[in-house]
Amino acid sequence: MPPLIVTSRHLAARCYTSLWSKREGHSEMDGAQIMKEDDKKEKTEEEVVHLRREIGLLPAVSFIIGTVVGSGIFIAPKGVLLNSGSVGLSLLVWALCGVLSLFAVASYVSLAFGRYVVEPFYAPCAAPTVLIKLVSILGVTFVVAVNCWSVTLASRTQITLTFVKMFALVLIIVPGVIALAKGKTENFQNGFEVDSLTLDRLPLAFYNGLYAYGGWFYLNFVTEEVINPNRNIPLAIICSMVTVTVCYVFVNVAYYTMMTPAELLLSDAVAVTFANRAFAGLASVIPFLVALSCLGALNGGFFGSPRMLFVGAREGHWPPIFSMIHIRRHTPLPAVLLLYPLVVVMLITGEIYQLINFASFARWSFIALATLGMLIHRYRFPLHPRPFKVPLVIAVTFTVVCFFIVGLSLYSDPWNTGKSGALTLTGVPVYYVTVYRFRLPHRWRHYCSTKLQILFEVAQQEVQTY
């Protein structure tokens, strides 16, 4: 049982009584009387603390597209080409990553945001790393503030930024298609040369491609806030991922019409190099649009990931403070704030391509284990109701491919994947000490939980939404 169960009215009464008793000299007995009287009043729908179903189909599609289309399409082409070895195979990797994502963490996105904001002011010289990371932290801070303030504000921000980033993709695709129609195809000749291909590096090509598609699963984290989830979740995933896959392939085709593979590998900001080649007059606009695109991906990540921590705490796998909601904002404030220092530490200490491999190993390991668990669950409980069902052959293929990529990447990049695995395993003793066998006396737990709850003005949800 959680060490603290205080309702929203209790919390408000405690805060008020604490100030009032200090000023007027009243005792805590008065506060208890206030809480009893408040509990007798019937709460309206707006007063009850719980997560609201405010996400319709358009916000759901915007949420996925806005989270997926971030820094990846402007950063990952270099990593895909480097590890795949040829133009044709790199385009195939992009398409397969989209299919894999259809069937099935935030620090590197923020670094990409900082890079695209800062680099135009220093071109053609390299931008200072410290300044890039400082701007990245500012971007993360803005997104955290939005997600702490309001679910509606975060949703509207996501819709707006999604339209901005789709405009950025169209701005890249159109001149590329025009150049291709005019016969600029020299970079596609002998596109499937395999001289540079090595199987041990191919998983890293998929990691970079899948990083660009990262975010397809975040909508599942906010199921409790989606209107008619049985219909809108699968429909939103299908519509958004087909759109993103088609756009990504065409964007990469556009890149290769303006840049040779060697030039693309030399560029740290592919979209900026493309803009300088395609339309010099609008070249300064592209970094701004890419930065907004990264901001949208960050917003989606900070909207979805805290819900996973929130549910974990609600199920007893995490300290109960993280299962609480702000009594007025109706946002999972403690869970959002927990991610903030973790992301800041990672972006300060890491480099973007190392972070991609580092984060991708942990992400796809857990995705593989999760899908394996669902297959086992389907076998053990075949009669359990399911809102929607994926064909068995797709689920098995997806799981096998995930385990193959994860396993081979241990050989391809043992240092970063090893660090990722080690960091993941540190969660075992943390869980054992803080949750499974919590050693602090009950009085201390009660005191700490109460103070944190009053500080953040949060309470456990009072309506079951799952």
From TrEMBL:
Topology in membrane: Multi-pass membrane protein
The entry's cellular-component GO terms read:
membrane
What's the superkingdom here? Eukaryota
Q: Could you list the residue ranges that cross the membrane?
A: 55-75, 87-110, 130-151, 163-181, 201-221, 233-258, 278-298, 331-349, 355-376, 388-411, 417-436
- Any keyword Transmembrane? yes
The GO terms this record gives for MF are: L-amino acid transmembrane transporter activity
Compartments where found:
Membrane
Which Pfam families does UniProt cross-reference here? AA_permease_2
What keywords does the record list, in alphabetical order?
Membrane, Transmembrane, Transmembrane helix
Q: Where is the signal peptide?
A: none
Q: Any idea what this protein is called?
A: Amino acid permease/ SLC12A domain-containing protein
Organism of origin: Etheostoma spectabile (orangethroat darter)
Question: What does UniProt list as this organism's lineage?
Answer: Eukaryota, Metazoa, Chordata, Craniata, Vertebrata
